[in-house]
Design goal:
By secondary structure, the chain is of the alpha+beta class. Helix content is 21%, strand content 27%. This is UPF0434 protein NTG6680_0408.
């Protein structure tokens, strides 16, 4: 994942900054509690493609 791209990407829903989780290949929005997948080094920033974070995952982000 390109570092420059990570600097400018924000959540498409609320415009909050995203957290990059390399091992899971996801971008996390803490505000909306969503995980956007990264496929072939391309972030899929569609709300329909995002998954909801579990309560355990949300707790680990704090």
């Amino acid at each position: 994942m390109d570092a420059k791209l990570l600097e400018i990407l924000v959540c498409p829903l609320c415009k909050s900054p995203l957290i990059y989780r390399k091992t899971e290949q996801e971008l996390i929005c803490k505000a909306d509690r969503l995980a956007f997948p990264i496929q072939d080094d391309i972030p899929v920033m569609l709300a329909d493609e995002a998954r909801k974070l579990t309560p355990e995952e949300i707790e680990r982000l704090r």
